[in-house]
Design brief:
This protein is an alpha+beta fold. The protein is built from 13 helices and 15 strands.
């Protein structure tokens, strides 16, 4: 068994502790990185600051059409200030003509949803959230609280869960994504039961994750299992993964057959092999954005891109208005689906894509409003 190591708190937990320890003191601190769905644009780099009066931002005149408000996260302890990690997107949204408003992500995760949105104007109508990740239950609470104030998030709680939790979408993706099995986790794990279910993989290599995220930057110690029938390896990797996830474990464990991907580089911080992957955003059935997942960390050969007909075939099966499909190139030249994500909590591969992202989003919304 791997030794017990301290578990780092999540972003929400860290700021909850600061609230308790410091009360109403307003701080200006950089927060620990916990990206919605990890993209390299969130790794390191200087942070710029921008102050925005909340009421002015919330009531910006919009020309975007039926859905005109984008909800961003406020800076922790500064409810009138845009979270520094979303400044580029916030600027692009307002430049494009969207109205914007702020909510307190930390309060949502603490269960104080009414307080988190208390500064939002009432009856803003249809809106889209662009912010930090929420659990399925937290998103449902936010959705319901906003509805009571006359605001309707683009995705229902069931649509959010479908794209957020791999077991929800696996039947839809089966045959287009690696073979997978999963186990809800409540309390201690039953290793014998896990090994029994893993027999379908024989001695094949696996990766382990929870229903939402992996520890891919701790590849050998908490993600990759060389042989599914090696009890010691399974136990070592699973226990380390659970230690690293800590209280942020999402629902349970997922074991996926490892498939060899086309490697195009190494991560500069973790030295993890980087594959030829693409993130695609979809809104109301239309392709909103397609870009190399790892941004400028890797160089993808010119012309290498997942085929649009295949992507559209998959997208038509997803019961959500706003979502992502992450895909990767296999060693054999075929493409595979890595995972789905809710479009509201999926990061852009590169920050400079924000203007194009919001321009295209506006175009699609206007088309939808006119149809």
């Amino acid at each position: 068994m791997a030794p017990t190591l301290p578990v780092l708190p999540s972003r929400a937990t860290a700021f909850s502790l600061l609230r308790i320890l410091l009360g109403s003191v307003v701080l200006d601190l950089p927060h620990p990185l916990e990206p919605s769905q990890e993209c390299p644009s969130r790794l390191g780099g200087p942070r710029e600051r921008e102050f925005a009066d909340y009421d002015t931002v919330a009531n910006t005149t919009s020309e975007a059409g039926a859905m005109s408000t984008v909800l961003f996260c406020s800076q922790p302890f500064a409810p009138r200030e845009v979270d520094v990690d979303f400044l580029t997107e916030h600027r692009a949204a307002t430049d494009t003509g969207f109205s914007t408003a702020l909510l307190d992500h930390t309060l949502v995760t603490e269960g104080h949803v009414a307080r988190a949105i208390r500064r939002l104007p009432e009856n803003i109508g249809s809106c889209v959230y662009r912010g930090w990740m929420l659990t399925a239950s937290q998103y449902s609470d936010l959705h319901n609280a906003l509805k009571q104030r006359g605001a309707e998030l683009v995705n229902s709680p069931s649509a959010y869960r479908f794209c957020h939790h791999l077991p929800e979408s696996y039947a839809t993706l089966e045959g287009e994504t690696p073979e997978s099995v999963w186990f809800p986790v409540k309390g201690s794990i039953a290793l014998d039961g896990i090994l029994d279910r893993l027999r379908i993989f024989g001695s094949a290599p696996l990766i382990v994750k929870d229903y939402v995220k992996s520890q891919k930057h701790h590849w050998n110690e908490a993600c990759f299992i060389p042989h599914a029938d090696d009890r010691a390896s399974v136990e070592r990797v699973v226990r380390r993964f659970l230690e690293l996830q800590g209280e942020d474990l999402a629902e349970g464990l997922v074991f996926r057959r490892y498939v060899p991907l086309r490697i195009v580089g190494l991560h500069p911080q973790s030295n993890m092999p980087l594959a030829a992957e693409f993130r695609t955003f979809w809104f109301d059935g239309q392709l909103l954005l397609k870009h190399a997942y790892w941004g400028d960390l890797v160089t993808v050969e010119p012309g290498l891109t997942p085929p649009d007909p295949w992507l559209h075939h998959i997208s038509r099966q997803i019961p959500s208005r706003f979502f992502t499909i992450d895909v990767a190139l296999l060693d054999n030249g075929q493409w595979t689906v890595v995972e789905l994500g809710d479009g509201q909590v999926a990061g852009l591969p590169e920050p400079q894509l924000a203007p194009l992202f919001y321009q295209k989003l506006q175009e699609i919304m206007r088309q939808t409003a006119h149809d």
